[in-house]
Design brief:
The complex is a heterodimer of chains A (about 525) and B (about 110). Chain A is α/β, with parallel strands linked by helices. Chain A contains 20 helices and eleven strands. In chain A, strands 1-3-2-4-6-5-10-11-9-7-8 form an eleven-stranded mixed beta sheet, sandwiched between helices. The longest helix of chain B is centred in the N-terminal third of the chain and has 14 residues, at about 20-35. The chains are: A alpha/beta (about 525), B mainly alpha (about 110).
């Protein structure tokens, strides 16, 4: 490992340059001063400080549990957390206190991480903007960055800050915003159609979607059982590798986790890419892709080419059906998964008492928003006896074709695919809400969705700022369970592009020392 | 082909959520239209895919009781309960058929 001149938070903790309690307090203070972002639904101040105290005791004895000991983290509010409210940004679960921790949450706590709070999302993770939850939309921290403000054509600052703010993307927008604004060092998201990578791209952070079956879904409130995965959001690829290392592996409580032995890895500093084969799928030049992102994508391909890698155009012919396929399979599984919310055992319960059915119907009418209800109804339609073969089974067949497209390309010698993550940079909220959730999701998930269909690992790496001063990310898709290779390439790319740090007033004000240095923005 | 009022009512009954208004029904129509694009794909001879992990054996553990006895914890989250029972309103009462005035499906 190369020697680093600047402070890194983990070694800073180890060397006593900062204590876990100080670190925790600073993050909590920053959460307060960035409250307008609406990234957090619940801030667990008391328990976080207690966890920080425990961590401090361990450090003082010279016995930290690992790299994550004392590191402040945030968790998307669709993961069960014992004793801390889990709402899924829905009226259906307002006030719900889970009796258990999701496996991934437990693993982080076992490593000594400090849980700062639960982050905001689209209701039940349905959406691509983090705008449709009951606690309101999440604001992209870059809306308030000097980089964005400088490029903004507005004259009057305060007036336009109010109407010009841009979305985080979704559905893990709160987690992305939390990491982007330095209020935590890593956050958990979930990824079913791109929900971790999309907001990562818009917020300028690293967003990793692991291979399906690598990380336990136990305790992650399910959307689509055959596609959901916990997602990891960090400020650099090395940090994502560290978090992955602490989360991956078989969980007896989730029988869809593979039983292979998982070995955490450190990422090598790749210098020679000449043995690498990068594939550029032409279908990812999707309608609506901004000229800016197209150019950046091309530039990235050239970067690899000039460094000696083999870069070839490849084809994934069924790409354009992926989003339609997803639409059917997602709504069908959602229809099934949302059936558990009936008001009897947990969550909201209507006062309607005439009959079980009328109570269920009223509870669900009161508890779910339009988006959720719409998907449940669509899903039930596709699952009707007369429709099952033509929609559900058909979609499952198309799914196989999509997965096979990837297999063919990887078998032809390609190691990694390079694609854009989003069609454009983050839209202003006022623009975004002009179209309905389903339309937006269909548009925004186009580039990320197929990886979920095929279960492949994929990562967003921030690449450059757009003309509007907002982050643009690029996506790498790898072979199943080849996270080490995927992250190694991503790390190399990250090093080449040197994505700028967000210039946020609130962050600067808090502590120039720990937060300003690029390297200390990470913990590993 | 437009979705019939009969199917709409059937869906509301199955899903136990309502379309609420004409917009909700329109949303379903659009969703079906969108999904119809799948018919363009030739899937002759293709097997449906349930899971990307279909080539692996699902994990099965020994049938040993390793946890449980947490009735008290689980009941904490329920609104209506009596001793160790979740209390539901009377069952076997079908939802009332909405009359013309009240139907939310008027718009279709």
């Amino acid at each position: 490992p190369e020697s680093r001149v600047h402070l890194q938070v983990s070694s800073a903790l180890k060397e006593g340059q900062i204590t876990p309690t100080e670190l925790c307090q600073r993050c909590l203070a920053l959460i307060k001063s960035t409250k307008f972002l609406n990234a957090y639904i619940t801030v667990a101040e008391e328990t976080a400080l207690k966890q920080a105290e425990e961590s401090e005791k361990r450090y003082s004895k010279g016995q930290p549990l690992g790299v994550l000991d004392g590191i402040p983290i945030a968790v998307k509010d669709n993961f069960n957390t014992a004793g801390i409210e889990t709402t899924c940004a829905s009226n259906m679960l307002k006030g719900y206190i889970s009796p258990y921790n999701a496996t991934v949450v437990q693993k982080l706590l076992d490593q000594g991480a400090v849980l700062l709070g639960k982050t905001n999302l689209d209701e039940f993770a349905m959406g691509s903007g983090s705008t449709d939850g009951v606690f309101g939309p999440v604001r992209n921290p870059w809306s308030y960055s000097r980089q964005y403000k400088e490029k903004s054509l507005s004259k009057s600052h305060s007036e336009d800050e109010e109407s010009n703010w841009v979305i985080t993307g979704g559905s893990s927008g709160g987690s992305a915003a939390a990491v982007s604004s330095f209020t935590c060092f890593a956050a958990l998201g979930s990824d079913t159609g791109g929900s971790t990578r999309n907001p990562a791209a818009h917020c300028g952070v690293v967003g990793l979607k692991p291979t399906y079956g690598l990380i336990s879904r136990h305790g992650l409130i399910p959307l689509v059982n055959s596609m959901d995965v916990p997602g990891i959001l960090t400020r650099c690829v090395d940090d994502a590798a560290v978090v992955l290392g602490s989360l991956a592996g078989h969980d007896p409580k989730d029988s869809t986790t593979i039983q292979d032995n998982f070995k955490p890895f450190e990422l090598p500093d790749l210098t020679d890419v000449s043995k690498l084969s990068i594939g550029i799928p032409k279908e990812y030049h999707a309608p609506g892709l901004s000229g800016e992102i197209l150019a950046l994508w091309s530039k990235a391909a050239d970067l690899f080419k000039n460094a000696g890698a083999k870069v070839t155009d490849v084809s994934l012919p069924h790409t354009r059906y992926s989003i339609v396929c997803y639409h059917v399979l997602c709504t069908a599984e959602v229809a099934s998964n949302m059936a558990r919310f009936d008001g009897l055992e947990y969550g909201h319960r209507s006062d309607m008492n005439k009959s079980t059915e009328s109570m269920y119907a009223a509870t669900r009418r009161e508890g779910f928003n339009d988006v959720v209800r719409g998907r449940i109804l669509s899903g039930n339609y596709f699952l009707l006896k007369q429709n099952y073969e033509n929609y559900f089974i058909k979609a499952q067949k198309v799914r196989r074709l999509i997965a096979n497209d990837f297999l063919k390309v990887f078998r032809s010698g390609v190691d990694i695919l390079l694609t854009p993550t989003t069609l454009s940079d983050a839209a202003p909220y006022m623009e975004f809400i002009k179209e309905d959730n389903r339309t937006r999701s269909a548009q925004d998930d186009i580039l990320t969705q197929a990886a979920n269909m095929a279960g492949l690992p994929a990562i967003n790496v921030p690449a450059a700022l757009s003309e509007r001063g907002l982050p643009i990310g690029l996506q790498f898709i790898g072979r199943s369970f080849q996270e080490k290779q995927l992250l190694t390439v991503a790390k190399w790319f990250e090093k080449q592009v040197k994505f700028p740090m967000i210039q946020l007033e609130e962050v600067k004000r808090l502590d120039p020392g720990v937060f300003q240095h690029q390297q200390s923005a990470s913990f590993s | 082909p437009k979705v019939t009022a009969e199917v709409l009512a059937h869906l509301e009954h199955l899903a136990l959520v309502d379309f609420r208004d004409a917009e909700g029904v329109e949303r379903l129509q659009k969703a079906i239209q969108f999904a119809d694009q799948l018919q363009e794909v030739n899937t002759d001879g293709v097997e449906p895919m349930d899971s990307v992990l279909e080539d692996r054996c699902l994990y099965l553990r020994e049938d040993d009781v390793t946890e449980g006895n947490c009735a008290k914890e689980l009941l904490k989250n329920a609104r209506e309960k009596v001793e160790e029972y979740f209390v539901a309103p009377p069952g076997n009462i079908p939802l009332p058929k909405l009359d013309e005035q009240e139907t939310s499906l008027q718009g279709s």
